[in-house]
Predict the structure of Copper-containing nitrite reductase.
Amino acid sequence: MKPSLPLATIAAALCLLFIDTPALAAPANSPAAKAAATAPTTRHHELQTNIVDGKMVFVDAKGQVNPVLTANTGDTIELVLKSGEGAEHDLVIPELNVASAKFSASSGKVTVRFKVTKAGSFTYYCSIPGHRQIGMEGKLQVSGPALADAGATAAPAAGHGGDAGSAALALYTPAPSPMRGPDPAAVSVAANPAQVPVAIGARAPQLLKYRMETVELPGKLDDGTTFTYWTFNRQVPGPMLRARVGDTVELTLFNAADSKMIHSIDLHAVTGGHGGGQHTQVAPGQEKTVTFKALNPGLYVYHCATPLVPQHIAAGMYGMILVEPEGGLAKVDREYYVMQGEMYTGRPHGAPVHQEANLEKMANELPDYYVFNGEVGALSKTHKLQAKVGETVRIYFGVGGPNKISSFHIIGEIFDKVYSEGSISSPKHDVQTTLVAPGGATIVELKVQHPGSYLLVDHALSRAGKGAVGVLEVTGDPVPGVFHAGAHQ
C-alpha cells in the first residue's frame, strides 16, 4: 500500500499545473474574436485646412488630402480642426446630424466628438458657401450593424491643452443669423466716381505695377441699414486701373490678415490663367502676384473668382481696368467711373438692421437692392457727378452683377457716343439707352447743353426704387434754343 500524499503537496501541484498550461486562444474567426475586434473605441483625427494645387482642402497629420476616415458603429469619433491658411471654415456631416463650430486663425482649434450608430458612407465637407465646390470634402466610412438609436449622437468634447477654441459640437441645424441692428462701426464704401486715373495718351509701352488689398468690413448700405462688404481697397467698385495696349502689368493682391475668406482676382483684360484667378487664391495675411500683357484695348471688368463666385461679387468685389489704344483716347472735360451691382439680403429692402447675404435669393436672381457704386445714395447723396454747360463728359460704366443686365440711361440726355461692350474700335452715335451685360462694360460720352439735375438710371425703372439712381449736376447758362419750360418764344 502506497503512502498517501499530503493535501498541501497536492494543492501545490495543481497550482503549477494551471500556471504552466497556456490559456487556449479563441480562433481568429470566432464570435468572441470578432466582437473584440469591433468593440467600440474612440477614433482621434486631426484635420487642418489648406490650399493644395489651387484647391481648398482638408489635410490630415500624414499630409493626406481629404482623407477617408474609418470607424465602426458604436465608435466615438473625435475631430480636432484647425485653419491652416487662416480663413474661416467648418465641418459638417448632414447625414449624421453633425456640425462643428466655425474656426479660423483667430478662433484657433475646435474639437468635436460624436458617436456613430449606423453604417454607411458619409460625406464630410465645409459648409461655407463655395468651399465644398472648390475641394473641401471627404468620406467617412462606417462598418458594422446599425445600433438601436440609428444616427449620430453628440458627445461632450474632451479638453485639449492649448486649444482655446475647443468646443462640443452642435447638431447640424443651419439657421439664419439672429437679427441685429445696424453696425455702428459701418463706413461708406462708395467709390468716388471722379477718382479716375489720369489719361495715358501717346507713349511707348512700359511696365506698370499695381497693388490691391482685399478687405472685409461693415459698410453703409442704406440709411439705417448696414452690410458686411467684401472689397478691393475698401471701396465698391474697386479702384479703376488704367494701362495702354502693349503695357506689361504686374499686379499684387494682398488679403487682409483679419479676413475670414480667401479672395482672388479675375481680370477680363487678361489672357490666360483664368484671368489671374487661377494663381491669386490668397489666404488671409498673404499675397500673390501675377504679370500679364495688355493685348487688347477696351474697358474690362475685374472681379473676385473664389467660390462661391456670385457671393463674392454680390458682396462688392468688382471693378474695371481700362486699356487705352495706341495714342490714347480723345480728350474730354470730365471722366467718371460708375458700376452697377445687385445685392441679396436676408431682410427686406430698407430694414433698419445689419443685413446678411441671402444665397437662396441670389441663386433665384431676386435682388433686394440695385446700387451704383456700392450703396444706396452713393451717386445721389454722397458723390454727385458734376459738369458745366458746354463740357463733354465721359462715363466708364460697368456691371459687376452678378446676375442682372443693366439698361443704362440718363434721363434728359442723349449719348453722343457709345462704345458698346467696352470696345473702343467702333463707337455708335446718338443712343438713348444702352444694354450692359453682367461682367460687361461700356463707355458713353455726352456734351451737356442745359443746366439741371440729370438722373443716371437702369431703365428697368422698378430698380430705381431699390437704389439704382445717380445724379449728374450740370451748372451754367443754358444754350439758347435747346430747352425751356413753356411755349415757343
